[in-house]
Amino acid sequence: MAPSPPAPELSGRNESLSVRRCLHLLDHVRAHADAGRGVPVLELADAIGVHRSTAARLLAPLIDEGLLVRDAAGRYRLGPGALRLGQAYLGSLDLPALAEPELRRLAERTGGICVLGVPEQDRIRVQLTTGRGRGSLATGSLVPSYCTAWGKAVLSVAPAAWIDRAIATGLQPLTPRTITDPTELRGELDRTRQRGFALDDREHDPHLRAVAAPVLSHTGMVVAAVGVALDHHRMPPVVLRENARATAELARSLSAAMGWSRPPRPTSREA
Question: What keywords tag this UniProt record (predicted)?
């Protein structure tokens, strides 16, 4: 008598488990393989808690689809199929569309002006603004990089040549609190990098205090900054810390959506 086929529910669970294991294998190879060393099958088997033969069976369709390749030593690396998937994902990204609902929530949470700014030569283009009282931070406006939270967030993780260009344009005093000394600005950018967010304490607008954090791409290059501004009376130190924490969390989330898989950190100091 022929054995009964597995119940549909059991078959579905098994297939779901196999898919999860395949995804885990892909992610393990992504995290541990590099140009000099692939990942051996025994390591992959241990990573998902299965026998070597089961791991080899799960790896086979990933190789067939080009998501993984097996080198001459029998080790596994990401294949061209993974590159095609990544390129398709990157091609579909729309940072303003990703940021808009998050900025709206941040504006509701803080009651401030929430902005997505992108670097444009030695300045910052305000690409998206939510909240009330936009003023000089209206969508489409260009603001300096050296005296705004968004600009300092970008410069803090940018190549050194970006900082040099910003200084070369002239550090004009827009308010009595604007940093106009190049050495002092470099020190402020170092502090910004260390704490993970930038502060504009009435340096660009005499009435506004702002915090911002950098957004990184999949390569680790800074592509934008997000932040919140409020009348300085409405952002005392306690509120500033809360807003900075929320802004940094949003920047990390957007960086992850852009493909950055590690915490934001300085990129190469070369131009």
Answer: DNA-binding, Transcription, Transcription regulation
pTM of the model as a whole: 0.75
pLDDT tens-digit readout, 14-72: 678 888 999 999 989 988 888 778 999 999 999 999 999 999 999 999 999 999 999 98
| φ, ψ (nearest 5 deg) of residue 146 | -80, -15
Per-residue model confidence as pLDDT tens digits over 232-252: 999 999 999 999 999 999 999
| Interior angle at CA 121, CA 120 and CA 127, nearest 5 | 10
Q: What is the DSSP letter of 236?
A: -
> Domains in the chain, ordered, with CATH?
17-90 (1.10.10.10), 93-258 (3.30.450.40)
> What sections of 33-116 are H helices per DSSP?
41-48, 52-64, 80-91, 95-110
